[in-house]
Amino acid sequence: MNNPTIATVIFPARDLQAGIAAWSTVFGTGPAFAGDDFAAFKTEDTEIGISSLPWVDEPLVMFHTDDIEQTRTELIEAGATPLAEVEGGGLPFSALLP
Hints:
Elements: E1 5-12, H1 16-27, E2 33-34, E3 38-42, E4 47-51, E5 60-64, H2 68-77, E6 81-82, E7 92-95
Parallel strand pairs: 1-4
Antiparallel strand pairs: 1-5, 2-3, 3-4, 5-7, 6-7
């Protein structure tokens, strides 16, 4: 595979404010971004997001890769479930392996 790295992981948070409080405790600081239904915490290498959107029912993993089409094909062949087509250079997957 193209040696993809995890860029972002988004976790469901039905109560966004409680999620922001909990993750702020974990990181020792508030989110880098917070909106009505999404907040993001940035580490040196990875962004951790929380979302109260109803379609986020499980963690979503987004990768950084040099060849997104090849990586998408390889992940699907390995059993991953794509949530969307490649758009704007991004590609969310619901699970890496079945």
